[in-house]
Amino acid sequence: MRILVPVDESSQSTRLIHFLLERDSLLGTDPEIELVNVQYSVPESLIRLFGLNEVKKYYQDTGVNVFEDLQKKTDFRSKLRTATERVMYGDVVKMLAEEAEASKADLIVMGARGLNPVQGLIFGSVSNGLLARTHVPMLVVRDESKLPEKKMRVGILVDGSAYGAAAANYVLEHLELFGEDPEFTVVHCAEPVPDPITPNPVNPMMPVLSREEIDEEQQTRFHEAVQPVLDPFEVAGLNVKAQLLVGEADLELPSFANGNLDLIVMGSHGRGNFTAAVLGSTAMHIAAETKVPMLVIRK
Q1: pLDDT tens string 190-236
Q2: Is the whole model's pTM more than 0.85, yes or no?
Q3: Which domains are present in the chain?
Q4: Where does the UspA domain start and stop, copy by copy (predicted)?
């Protein structure tokens, strides 16, 4: 597994390194981990003043200091022995997106401040920009996120579309990421259906479904959404169950995640340049209302 980890001098980077160090099942597979620090470009006037070589040396030295500081805080080199460290400079989002594609990364692990959901900066500008510019799956750990325990409770959000199936397939292909004996829950949220009105106000001659028939139809749709995901997990002998939530997805899914999950896995349609367009409105609300780390699979 190839993992790209952007790092800087922030506490987010320290948390990300600790997260990786705690994933024994992942590290046991000898993943290819690349730690990348991107230094912002300086104005052309400074390059002319100091010279290109001096500017590059400054970038390199500053980036190396970031890695040395991380080493002091986490001792990551003792466990991530095969990890590479790279300093780049330029536009942060552009450089990271290009590196993710060039290295054929299977995963980007990012920290995020979780700024203002009204502005669409659910994950912060860099994470948001990367979601828009690359199809590499991204694990986003917010500042407020509680890092998952070694045995993780993983929720896979499905709605019967190909996006949920893509998220489930990624999980099956990279089980080592989720620790020893993880608990998987396939979560589907259905809109509430009001009690039937008799007679039908639109067409009095039209048959009216009973409450029992409405509930049975809801259960049928639930099984149609979750069963294609449950089947391969059960065949693989994994600890998996299904959960039906009834209500507004924007409210029910974050509430369930906050109380029952260590990690959310969801698919996204991958269109647009803003969080609302990339994730979709429901996923955007989930991201805004939960502090649980999120693994976003682009489709």
Answers
A1: 887 766 655 555 555 555 667 677 778 888 888 988 999 999 999 99
A2: no
A3: 1-105 (3.40.50.620), 144-299 (3.40.50.620)
A4: 2-142, 153-298
